[in-house]
Amino acid sequence: MVPAGGGNALTLPAHRHAVRIETGNGRAPTWLLAVQQQGAGGEGLNLLRSEDGFQGFQKLAAVQPDATHHDRAELVAVGRDVALVYAFEAPSLSASSRHDVWFQWWRYQEGAHTWTPEPAVRVFNADDTTAYSRALLARDSRGRLWVQAFRRESDGGSTAVVAVSTDGGASFQRQPDLGRVRKRGGGRMLSVGEKLVFFYAMHDGFEPTRLRVRDAADPLDTWGPVREAFSDGIYHGAALSAVEDGRGGIHLVYKDETERLYYRRFDGTSFGPRTLVENTPDWALQPAVTRVGDALYVFYNHMQSAADYEIRVRVLRDGTFSDPVTLDSRTSFKGYLNALDVLPDSVTEVPCFYGDAPDASSSAKVMRVAMPRQPEGGGSGQDGGTPGGGGSSDGGAGTPDGGAGTPDGGGMPDGGAGTPDGGVDAGTDGGGAPDGGVDAGTDGGVGPVTLEPVFTNTTHEVLAVDGAGTVFALALDGVRSRLWASTDGGRTFSARGQGAGGASFWVMAALKDGTLLAQMSRGGSYHLERSTDGGQTWADVVALGTYRAASPASFAELGSTVFFLEYQTVTSGSTPLRLWASTDGGATWAVRFTFQTSRHGLALFADPVRSVLWATFGSSAAQSAVMRSSDGGRTWSTVMAGYAANAMTGKVLSGGELLLGQSTLYAPEHPKLLRVYASARVDALLTLPGPAYSLEPLPGGGWVLGTGRANVGDVQPDSDVYARLFTSADGTTWREARRYTRSASTALARVEVRGVLPSGDLVVRVENLEGFGAGGKGFQVLRVRR
Fold first, then answer.
1. Which of 9, 520, 768, 770 could hold 355 in an S-S bridge, CB 3.0 to 4.6 Å?
2. Which residues contact 95 (CB under 8 A, 6 or more apart)?
């Protein structure tokens, strides 16, 4: 890829040198890699960029161009921006006033599709008697930035120092030191859920590795006591690679003082026993790890001889390592490695970077290899599948739009007769009557995924969670025209903005580039508004009249186009429903297609791999359908028809099938989880106790499904008054994870996952459920446990 001064150009192994960023607008993800070129070609510390996983690349800019000072960087992606720290790193360390630690933002510029640096902020200032090195960066669950480094002491020892920024990196406040070792130190600091975890060791000494942990809710200067992490040390304190495991823990691969590689898992409290990964000892042996879902890819450089190394990889799944796979067997010295910490399941290969040279003392090139993989099941990543907040008129009465108190999109007639629409089965398999829980696939298989409440909010109605983890909501005791936002995982809210002309917020979707779209009402009619500044200001973009959104799944992104599907409650007959399309991020819209035979447009689901758009419609047997378009919504074919096609939530699987949760309410069509194929084949996977309202992939792999308790229909017995969350680790075995009791029998009760926080915790919106606020509304934050 690029020349470098030596085979160990990617020191420090513990650092994240690379990040992958989704910039939206139909663009491929951008990959950024920080490389210290050590004077090769006159270059110092540079950022490289790529749009194809570093199969091709270009220099973005210099981070620190002075090649005489070997600074190394640690990168953290924050939305579309990049936060980084850099500090000196070399085999030896002596006192120098040049050895400071610097923090810097690289801000994304959408118009130019590039990143530009803000002025660097000095975090630790060295003098002629000391030096700082091995700077690490972590962003905790409250959005605070923590920088940890090691300070060289006059006696040859080193102190683990730490500072925190509560103002987005504008300034840093020194905190009490975290520990001290007798020689040079190294370690790792990671944000894991609501905790900040720091473990450290030292050079050339058979001492235990030590650990400190802090909770995000504690005062800034408060950490848990120093305790032993495990009895063996870590070679140089820094011969390691670690990543949060998506389940509240950490995967750690490290080299011990016998120069062998081992694996341990931190479960949120302590490290477990070690597992041998590589048994050939060598001074240059290093790991680099990447997590994809529940799989951990462990790259390492296996020594054949002093000038002949191989790049190998082993994959950890379900507690078992695969046999090694050799990715590069050319005869050369292959030095320190680096990899991206987490990649989405959609990737088709997992790359690794390393220095390659004739021998350890020669100039080198940074090389790239990759482990091919097949994406495992898991959705398109769009923000779809959950009903919206409210559905009441703008007149202030707080009653549902139709006036009859029936749930929207439930597949029942609105005429008031309460009779079924025919109840056809549409060719699904199974479908026996529910017995109060899921009646299929609940035994055996992969271990359970549990959902643990972190906290409960009874004062706000969640609208959306964006990609940066900002929670947008309405205050239950306030007006619907005032938007509130939380940047600390929903714990505290501040006023963010107001709808144009005092419009009321009902349904919101957050696009991948951070743009917010909201279906709103003003003066008795509906319209769409758009915000590009995090909800502070809003502008009208589409007048809808009597049409509105059913839920956030009324919006979908496919390539560079954003789609919106209309829903209406004015008439019970079929009516024209427009599919709107925007090719400029929601700024302007045009009608792409008009559907003529349905009453409700329920949901859209995008398949970016195949450029396919799915849509569901309701609500009678004649009006309901699952449809599919392969030309950007210009023409459509019916895949599934009849009352069974009523569905408000789903996700596209890796094979192109649609995983669909039915919202049917009348027998004989009991709601089920379906797999729908483009060929019109429909498989019933399991029967649900009530209509499905949300289906989302879980962080780390698997699924979470939310069901409701309708106030009409006959598929649920009177004794079943619950809304539920179900989880599955593999999409086959499902278990009830949480159950909520309906508050009032006259309204729909439901529970829906509305988003995932950077910690991996779920934001779950509730409606008409006991133990919450006005109208049974509010939300919970749930932690995923495996």
1. 9
2. 126, 127, 128, 129, 130, 131, 152, 154
